[in-house]
C-alpha cells in the first residue's frame, strides 16, 4: 500500500527508509513505499477473473508488477497466451500511469508489445515499468517483462490522463 501525505512548505519534513519527497512549488508531497507487493485486482473484472496482479511503487518514475502463470493463462501450444501477456502489461503499466497522474483515471492510447521468449506454466512473470515522460494530459511509459533474470517481452505505450472521475471509479 502506498500512503501519500501533503504538507505545505515549512510545516513538516519527514524522511524514512521507504519514502520519497517531491517538491512541487510550495508543497512537499511525501509518498511512503511498501517493500511488499499489493494485490490491485480487488474489484471484479477481467484481471481479477484471471488471477489478479500484484503491484508496488519503487520510485516517482518506476513501478513493478507480477503474477504467476496458471493453467488458464496458457494457449493450445501450452505456453502463456499473448493476449494474457498484453492484458497484464496494459493493467500493470496502466496502474503506473494512474499512480503517476495523482490518482486520476488513465486510458490506453497506444500499446506496442514485443514477445521475445515463451513463458511456461508456474513461472513468475515480473514487470518493470518506467515513466519516460509525463505531461499534463499524457503519460509515456516503457516496460520490460522478466522470468527470473531472462527478459521475455518489452512494451511501450501512451496513456491519456482523464481529468474527471469515471462513474466506476467513484467510491460507493
Structure description:
- This protein has helices spanning 46-49, 82-100, and strands spanning 3-8, 19-24, 27-32, 38-39, 54-59, 62-68, 106-115, 124-134, 138-147, 150-161.
- It is mostly beta strands and 172 residues long.
- It folds into two domains: 1-35, no CATH class; 37-169, Hotdog Thioesterase (Thiol Ester Dehydrase, Chain A, Roll), CATH 3.10.129.
- A seven-stranded antiparallel β-sheet has the order 4-5-6-8-9-10-7, with helices on one face. It has a three-stranded antiparallel β-sheet with strand order 1-3-2, with no helix packed on it.
- The longest helix has 19 residues, at 82-100.
- The two termini are 20 Å apart.
- 23% of the residues are buried.
- Mean pLDDT is 79; it is low at 1-34.
Write the layout of secondary structure elements.
Elements: E1 3-8, E2 19-24, E3 27-32, E4 38-39, H1 46-49, E5 54-59, E6 62-68, H2 82-100, E7 106-115, E8 124-134, E9 138-147, E10 150-161
Antiparallel strand pairs: 1-3, 2-3, 4-5, 5-6, 6-8, 7-10, 8-9, 9-10
Keyphrases for this structure?
mainly beta; Thiol Ester Dehydrase, Chain A; 172 residues; 3-stranded antiparallel sheet; 44% strand
Q: What is the highest CATH level, the class of the largest domain?
A: Alpha Beta
Radius of gyration: 17 Å
Kindly report the CATH topology of the largest domain: Thiol Ester Dehydrase, Chain A
Number of helices: 2
SSE string: EEEEHEEHEEEE
Q: Biggest β-sheet: count, sense, barrel? A: 7 strands, antiparallel
The number of distinct structural domains comes to: 2
CATH architecture of the largest domain: Roll
* 3D shape: globular
Provide the low-confidence segments as ranges: 1-34
State the distance separating the first and last CA atoms: 20 Å
Question: Looking at this structure, what is the CATH superfamily of the largest domain?
Answer: Hotdog Thioesterase
Widest sheet, order of strands: 4-5-6-8-9-10-7
